[in-house]
Automatic annotation (TrEMBL):
<dbReference type="Pfam" id="PF09004">
    <property type="entry name" value="ALKBH8_N"/>
</dbReference>
<dbReference type="InterPro" id="IPR043502">
    <property type="entry name" value="DNA/RNA_pol_sf"/>
</dbReference>
<dbReference type="InterPro" id="IPR015095">
    <property type="entry name" value="AlkB_hom8_N"/>
</dbReference>
<dbReference type="GO" id="GO:0008168">
    <property type="term" value="F:methyltransferase activity"/>
</dbReference>
<dbReference type="Pfam" id="PF00078">
    <property type="entry name" value="RVT_1"/>
</dbReference>
<dbReference type="InterPro" id="IPR000477">
    <property type="entry name" value="RT_dom"/>
</dbReference>
<dbReference type="GO" id="GO:0016706">
    <property type="term" value="F:2-oxoglutarate-dependent dioxygenase activity"/>
</dbReference>
<protein>
    <recommendedName>
        <fullName>Reverse transcriptase domain-containing protein</fullName>
    </recommendedName>
</protein>
<feature type="domain" description="Reverse transcriptase">
    <location>
        <begin position="239"/>
        <end position="506"/>
    </location>
</feature>
Length: 654
């Protein structure tokens, strides 16, 4: 049995807005009084200003929020209501009275009551579907299918253990000897200015279901009161950009440790999930939009993360096309090095990052703001209501922040191949070196690996050689001598026969049986939930929607990458899952092959529209201007891959 305090947020939002409106109209609340209290001459202490505003908002929340206790039981069914409880009590009373006739009647009434309650709950779930409320619909589906998360976070109340975790997460901060120094402002570089409408839009788009950060202000409050809060936060944001200083309360981070395994054995078995103030996330989104506008779309074309019209599918397709095209030539093979970094985000040096941003002509004032954002960041570890002591960090880009992934991609934008026969494909911190070897000459590839190791050392990125793997694709009948292993920092890199690259399993013979088998196995497990929903007589629309989201999405994951070269047996195995789902739903479902064709065409057209895409040049029009030039291939393996197939489908669609 759990007893929890629940806040009636809908009631709060209305009352909070009404309270603020009343204060502004009748009492004459002036948000500028907080700035006046923080002013010292011509200078305004932004920490004092921001803290006083957040304190006032929290005080307002406390004054209008109502709480109530709700008792829940682990085995409580979602359709259980007051009527069913009354009938259940009547049945138990009849059972204890030894009245056979009364017991039989009460049991029949209970059975009818449960059936009616289940039907009402089913209608409620369907109503969420028709009202376009997917969150509540999926919650209802999970309740009906008795789905339970496989990994729950245990509460840790030992403060000393939380302190150890905090020290472990901040271990790179102790080893760093870098000092952060802001650059002198240039007269040509004026601070970024945000408008009240921009801030209002950012506040109104907040996801109300996200957890609150260390400041304790829920996203629902900020979104509901966007009109009242836009003005004061616009002033705070602009003051922060002008002073190139981020308020300390905005930078504070609360780390929630989540076990990576069912039985964590060491500190590294806890994944740090960072919670930062939601209002700071809004601020970061506005800065991020400005940063993206300042940079050319062609910057670091082989970084496929955090870019529009890029995905893991694009990254894998690019890797395979490079390999397959090279393997079409005689006496060639390919070596793929899948690089693993140790806590890549946590080892970024702010001073090096801002130097690189300056080289990209980013505003000096904004570079200083980013420097301040990444330094002097308070961090503590929290489990339930227990918190560790606070540590101040001066290194790394905080995970969980909106800006961090993009800043990391800018930090690594100068990690480029030095030899034309090699390529470096990046998806966030997943880095892959592709070496195209001809005539057994691996000199360029080995130099590339050593250059990467040197670059990582210069940029404080720690290569994890034990987790770095190499896969060699060699179809030559006479391979000659065995392939010598690669060494990084004196350690041998393990060679593997298969590797799961961005969710897709690539094997050394470029077959896809291993990949499709894992997808089919996972999809089969989801069929149980599909049967449960059908058993509960949910509408066909909801059942099919569940299939599309939970089963078809698995079967067609990166389908344009591998389906063309699947064996007949693999394709039949995939289609059998679809046929089984079709029998369960009683509704025709699209075939896997049809989905693959549609996605190939859609993906190709999106690449055609994006001239900055690294594979845009593979689609060349013939002199007629109507059809595309077919890609030259020698083997069926290359011919059935994504890009030749996409060109063929585009031409056939004309």
């Amino acid at each position: 049995m759990d007893v929890a305090g629940a806040t009636t947020w809908d009631e709060f939002a209305a009352r909070s807005i009404a309270r603020m409106d009343t204060q502004e109209e009748n009492i004459g609340l002036d948000w500028s009084m907080f700035a006046s209290q923080a002013a010292c001459g011509s200078h305004t202490d932004i920490d004092t200003y921001t803290s006083s505003v957040l304190t006032y908002i929290n005080t307002t929340i406390d004054s209008v929020t109502s709480e109530k206790q709700i008792t829940t039981y682990p085995n409580q069914k979602p359709w259980m209501n007051k009527e069913v409880r009354i009938l259940l009590k009547a049945r138990n009373t009849a059972f204890r009275s030894d009245d056979v006739q009364a017991y039989s009647k009460s049991r029949a009434n209970l059975k009818r009551g449960i059936k009616k309650a289940k039907y009402c709950y089913k209608l409620k779930v369907e109503e969420h579907f028709s009202n376009s409320d997917p969150r509540r619909m999926w919650q209802g589906i999970q309740a009906i299918s008795d789905y339970k998360p496989s990994n729950s976070t245990p509460m840790v109340t030992d403060v000393s253990f939380l302190n150890e975790l905090n020290d472990f997460y901040a271990r790179f901060n102790r080893d760093s000897k870098e000092t952060a120094t802001k650059t002198t402002h240039s007269a040509d570089h004026q601070p970024l200015k945000l408008t009240s409408s921009d801030v209002h839009t950012a506040l109104s788009r907040i996801n109300a279901h996200k957890a609150a950060g260390p400041d304790g202000i829920p996203g629902r409050v900020l979104r509901a009161c966007a009109e009242q809060l836009a003005g004061v936060f616009t002033d705070i944001f602009n003051l922060s950009l002008t002073q190139a200083t981020v308020p300390t309360c905005f930078k504070s981070t609360s780390i929630v440790p989540v076990p990576k395994t069912l039985l964590p054995m060491c500190l590294n078995d806890y994944r740090p999930v960072a919670l930062t103030p939601i209002i700071m996330k809004c601020f970061e989104r506005l800065v991020l939009a400005h940063l993206k506008d300042c940079l050319p779309p062609t910057l670091d074309p082989h970084q496929f993360a955090y870019r529009r019209n890029r995905s893991t599918e694009d990254a894998v397709c690019t890797v395979l096309h490079s390999a397959l095209t090279h393997l079409d030539s005689n006496n060639t093979y390919v070596r793929m090095l899948f690089v693993d970094f140790s806590s890549a985000f946590n080892t970024v040096i702010p001073s090096k990052l801002t130097t690189k941003l300056g080289d990209l002509d980013i505003n000096t004032s904004l570079c200083n703001w980013i420097m301040d954002f990444l330094t002097n960041r308070p961090q503590h570890v929290r489990s339930g209501h227990t918190c560790s002591s606070t540590i101040t960090l001066n290194i790394g880009v905080p995970q969980g922040c909106v800006l961090s992934p993009f800043l990391y991609s800018l930090y690594t934008h100068d990690c480029k191949p030095v030899h034309g026969s090699n390529s470096i494909i990046k998806f966030a911190d997943d880095t892959t070196v592709i070496g195209l070897i001809s005539d057994n000459d691996e000199t360029a590839y080995r130099e590339e690996v050593q250059h990467l190791a040197t670059w990582c050392a210069e940029n404080n990125l720690l290569l994890n050689t034990s987790k770095t793997k190499e896969l060699i694709v060699d179809f030559r009948k006479k391979k000659g001598s065995t392939h010598d292993p690669i060494h990084i920092n004196g350690m041998v890199v393990e060679r593997v026969s298969s590797f799961k690259f961005l969710g897709t399993t690539i094997t050394e013979d470029l077959s896809w049986t291993t990949n499709t088998s894992s997808l089919v196995k996972k999809a089969h497990q989801r069929l149980f939930f599909l049967r449960t929903l059908k058993k509960n007589q949910l509408s066909s629309a909801i059942v099919v929607n569940f299939y599309r989201c939970a089963i078809e999405s698995i079967l067609t994951s990166c389908i344009t990458v591998w389906y063309g070269n699947c064996t007949v047996a693999d394709r039949k195995a995939l289609q059998r899952v679809v046929k089984t789902a079709q029998r369960i739903t009683g509704t025709p479902l699209p075939a896997i092959e049809d989905i693959q064709r549609k996605r190939c065409v859609r993906r190709a057209r999106s690449i055609l529209k994006d001239s900055s895409h690294p594979d845009h040049g593979l689609f060349n029009l013939l002199p007629s201007g109507r059809r595309f030039r077919s890609l030259r291939t020698r083997t069926s393996r290359s011919r059935n891959s994504f890009f030749p197939t996409a060109v063929s489908l585009l031409n056939s669609a004309l």
